[in-house]
Amino acid sequence: MKLPANNKTRSSQVQTQDLTESRLNDDFVFWLKKNGMNTLLVVLMAACAFLGYNYWQRKNVDKTAAAWSDMMNATLPEALEQVAKDHANVPRAAMMSLLAAGDLRLRQLQSGVLSAAEGTTAAVVLDDAARKIAQDAADEDYTNAAKIAVTLAGGSQEKAALVVLQSLFGRAAVAESRGNLDASRALLAEAQSVAGEDWAPIAKLAKARVEGLIAIAELTTLPKNADLPAPTPSASTTNPSDSTGGGDTLFENLIKEQQKQEPSSAPAAPKSGG
Asked: What integer pLDDT is reported at residue 252 of this predicted model?
């Protein structure tokens, strides 16, 4: 039985397609045998990298959350400084912890109290040794906070201006508490320069603080000995006998005055009779 021409064509196409698919399957099987293990290894490595990246992100989120939580729970400057050390790998939390610790230290210096009274517990007064510790620690806290901010800003003070300015104002206040007005003015002048036109109100405030420190320095400057007028001799130094500065001399003068005022108690001499 003879097939129609269209059926022959269709049968030829099916056979050709079957042969092509069979050849593709054979090629694929051969490729899998040759490269399958390497491909599978690459896929597994990509999957592990993806899972590792997700795990690293979750760990970073957990570390960041723990750092900020520790900072919020810290109430003493020592605790905040410890938070900055423990979470140095979370630089923003460490930076803010140091700024907060510096502010608390500065508050201690301004109030003169190490810890405020609470309930029946009396306040702890800041003695000289504790005062120096607070000054040194506050200056270090502010300095380190500014360093972290500048590092995060790629070395630019302008981009980290807010933190740098807070640091400079804090350090200036610490220098003023030490009585070092020159160092305080230098830090405030630096703050004025960093603020510039972008932070004009802060620059104006720094300038006003500098002028105030200059006025304080002028008021508290004592004259030199050479500028003092020569002392003039007084009556007490020229005539010691008239001096009333000594206790014995004053007592003798009082007795003499008393004797002058009292009437004489001696009997009068009898008149001679004529």
From this structure: 66
Q: Tokens for 69, please give them.
A: 């939580």
Percent of the chain with pLDDT over 70: 64
- Helix segments in 123-199, DSSP class H: 128-152, 161-177, 181-195
Q: Tens digits of per-residue pLDDT, 13-24?
A: 555 555 565 665
Angle at 143 between CA 139 and CA 144, to 5 degrees: 120
- Residue type at position 227: D
Residues 6+ apart with CB under 8 A from 123: 113, 114, 115, 116, 117
Q: At what angle do helices 91-111 and 161-177 cross, to 10 degrees?
A: 30
SS3 state at 122: coil
Number of H helices, E strands in the chain: 9, 2
Q: For residues 43 and 154, what is the distance between their CA atoms, to the nearest angstrom?
A: 37
Phi then psi dihedrals of residue 30, to 5 deg = -65, -40
- Give the three-state DSSP class for 121: strand
User: Residue 63 — pLDDT band, cuts 50, 70, 90?
Assistant: confident
Q: Parallel, antiparallel, or unpaired: how do β-strands 113-115 and 124-125 relate?
A: antiparallel
Burial class (CB in 10 A: 0-12, 13-18, 19+), 206: buried
SS3 (DSSP) at 114: strand
DSSP state of 65: H
Distance CA 178, CA 181 (A): 8
Within 10 angstroms of residue 133's Cβ, the number of other Cβ atoms is: 15
- What does 3-19 look like in DSSP terms, one character per residue? PPHHHHHHHHHHHHHHH
Indicate the SS3 state at residue 197.
coil
Please, what sign has the CA dihedral across residues 197, 202, 206, 209? positive
